[in-house]
Amino acid sequence: MPPSQNLRGIVAMLLAVALLSFMDTGLKLIAPHYPPLQVAALRALSSLPLVLAFIAWRGAFPTLLRVRWPLHLLRGALGIGMLSL
Questions:
Q1: Are the CB atoms for 84 and 37 separated by under 8 Å?
Q2: What DSSP designation does 63 have?
Q3: In the 8-state DSSP scheme, what is residue 67?
Q4: Is the pTM of this model over 0.90?
Q5: 39-79 pLDDT, tens per residue?
Q6: What pLDDT shows up at residue 60?
Q7: Residues 43 and 23 sit within 8 Å (Cβ to Cβ)
Q8: Distance CA 21, CA 14 (A)
Q9: What backbone torsions phi and psi does residue 55 show, to the nearest 5 degrees?
Q10: Residue-wise DSSP of 45-61
Q11: Where do the H-state alpha helices sit in the chain?
C-alpha cells in the first residue's frame, strides 16, 4: 500500500474520532434537557445529512432500491424498542 493511502487512512480515522467526540459532547449537553427518545432522534437526524452526502459522493443512490428494506425496518423497530424499554 502506498504511503499516501496510509496517510489518507490516518487522517480519516482522526477525523472520525474527532467527530465522534463532538457528537458525544453535544449529546451529553442536551441529555439533561430532553427525553432519551428525543436525544436519539436528534442524533439520527443530525447524522442523516452526512450519510446522504456520502451516498451522493459514492454515486450509490441507484443501489438504494436493492437494499433489503424489511431488515432495515426491523432494525429500526428494534432500536426504538430498545430505547423505549
A1: yes
A2: G
A3: S
A4: no
A5: 888 888 888 888 888 888 888 878 777 878 889 899 989 98
A6: 81
A7: yes
A8: 11
A9: -65, -40
A10: HHHHHHHHHHHHHHT-G
A11: 3-30, 36-58, 69-84
CA 59/CA 45 separation, integer angstroms? 21
Would you say 61 and 55 are in contact if contact means Cβ atoms under 8 Å apart?
yes
The three-point CA angle 67-70-72 to 5° equals 65
Q: Give the pLDDT band (50/70/90) at residue 5.
A: confident
CB 39 within 8 A of CB 31: yes
Distance of alpha carbon 67 from alpha carbon 83, whole angstroms: 25
Query: What burial class does residue 41 get, using C-beta atoms within 10 Å of its C-beta: 0-12 exposed, 13-18 middle, 19+ buried?
Result: middle
